[in-house]
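dumping this here before i forget
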Amino acid sequence: MLDTLLDGLDALDVPRRLGVNVDDVDPLLADSDLVVGADGINSAVRGASFGGRSGPRQVGTVAWIGIAGFESGVYGETWGKGRFFGMTPVEPGRTNWYATVSEATTAEQLRDHFADWHDPIPRILHETDPSTWIRYEMRHLFPALPTFVHGGKVALVGDAAHAMTPNLGQGACTAILDAEALTRAVAEHTASDLPGALRAYDTERRRSAQRIAFGSRTLHRLMSTHRTGARDAVVRMLPG
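structure:
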């Protein structure tokens, strides 16, 4: 995907600088016709143009991810009290796994949380190297932004605009839809009507993206709740 994007820039003869951190957005705003903030949940572009009203917020859980060096043969998610564990195939001979708990700061604490769960969950945690695991505090962007555009020349896309929990698996997909909609809106408007293009982009994408973010956060709360009786009763009523 990155190669495709770079090829597109080459075809348009667009200059680019790689590996440069942008902390001061003001020069970009002063020298550019359009500034696209695609710089993630800690977006400098969002901070400079939209202030601190919306920002990264922890959701109260810790996620761990890793890859086991064997095929588990069991895939899907198991939900427990305040925690859940998932397994997905990644390639022959390996299994991708992820776990979410209210708190676990060490590998042994994580293993203890799932020690009495069904096979192969304890085995996956005990037979994979903790030095390869990734731990992060789960966050989302809150509160939702009132607009994805600012000043007729700034647009936010992806996590900069609507960072969400990963429970629906839609973060990257939503960012791609943002980029496509913004590109199309700019192409369909005249060069003198960039503000109109940004308004069209915001109209098309903001409510849809924020609905997905809200749905993902709601699912996260359902999956990680400690009120498992009510949750399980709701799940049993779902079709299929």
